[in-house]
Amino acid sequence: DELFRYIEELDEEIKVAEAIIYTGIFIIDSVITSKYLYGNSKGVKFDINTGKIKKGNISDFDINIILSNLLDNAIEACCLVETEEKWIKIQIKQINQLLSIELLNTFEIPCIRKQGVFETIKEERSAHGYGIKSMQRIVDKYQGLITYEEKEKIFPTKITFFNV
Prior knowledge:
The chain has 164 residues and is α+β, with helices and mostly antiparallel strands.
């Protein structure tokens, strides 16, 4: 029920604002447009590069989780940046059966890792920290690969699915 309410909210936001990208996959277009509008309202600049994508074997539900968590985390990190350098670059491309999602965002507060796993920096720790775990679970489900890096105030995340 909660998921359907969320999707209906996304749908309403998209009806109000025309999609800023067109991949041919409604859930991708909806999530990116919704997060773009929210991020822009917080002063985050976006650079979005994607083309037409063929519907593969990844469910809309899983795509929603991946993109929503990626963009929510990136927007949150950008909102903590105290300079004008608040931006997110996202590139989604498909070559044959390979689907690549690459996201770079600015950040200032270093990530905390324990045994290689990211820890939330939010105050209510018990209610947070599931997004990255959810993304990893989905990437594993489709035998993909996810990588994160921290380098000079830019945080690149790359997700690759090899057989979609």
